[in-house]
Amino acid sequence: MDYTDITVTTAADVVTITLNRPDKMNAMNSGMRAEVTQAFRDAPDMGRVVVLTGAGRAFCSGQDLNDGSATLDLEATLRDEYVPMLQAIIDCPIPTIAAVNGPAAGAGANLALVADVVIASSDAYFVQAFARIGLIPDAGGTWFLPRQVGLARAMGAALFTDQISAAQALDWGMIYEVADAATFADHWQARARHLAQGPTATYGHIKTALRASFDNDLTQQLALEARLQGACGRTDDFREGVTAFMQKRKAQFTGR
């Protein structure tokens, strides 16, 4: 696919999807959403981990309000464009990282939270800006945010629309880690390479098990663990991992 509003590169099994409208702080238009959707669907055939980041000084400032927003059918746009994009990220069988290089606002903040792991630059921030223009958090924000930070903090963030610094987001449990702005790119790239060299199929099962735990009771979750662990035990990577452990060497995983 030829991309206009994003770039997609692959190196050492790391697929990097970069939101590429820096003059608009990477605000999302219809074209960008379609391109991100397709890129995440294609990513498993291109590498073993996928990173979403932004060009320029911002990660993503949310919906482009100059993209016909005054006459936009918000329900249809969410249903037909945002939901497929978010689902493509959620359904991606390989690990997903949001490398939040700068401000992440509105739908841009929630786009980051959909990833398996969020790594933020120390000068990044998150803001649920929706109420400023008379809207509720969308792009999955009403689902992900309260599960990550609790109802009280999610409610306050949505009602007051305060900026949440990267450090505060880390303290709240909204993101995984913060890296110094000066070394941010090197840090997330090293993290991505680590996952790209890991047991890829196992990572997919980890994602399945952890997400299911919110809906399963203990009996159901234990049964799921057993089934998925059985699947892991049949992989080449499990055999390699055990062999490497016995031989006191680093495992060379192939992702199979």
UniProtKB/TrEMBL annotation:
Coiled coil: none annotated. The keyword Cell division does not apply. It comes from the Bacteria. It holds the Pfam family ECH_1. SUPFAM superfamilies: ClpP/crotonase (SSF52096). GO terms for molecular function: isomerase activity. InterPro entries: ClpP/crotonase-like_dom_sf, Enoyl-CoA_hyd/isom_CS, Enoyl-CoA_hydra/iso, Enoyl-CoA_hydra_C. The keyword Isomerase applies. Keywords: Isomerase. Belongs to the enoyl-CoA hydratase/isomerase family. This is 2-(1,2-epoxy-1,2-dihydrophenyl)acetyl-CoA isomerase. It comes from Loktanella fryxellensis.
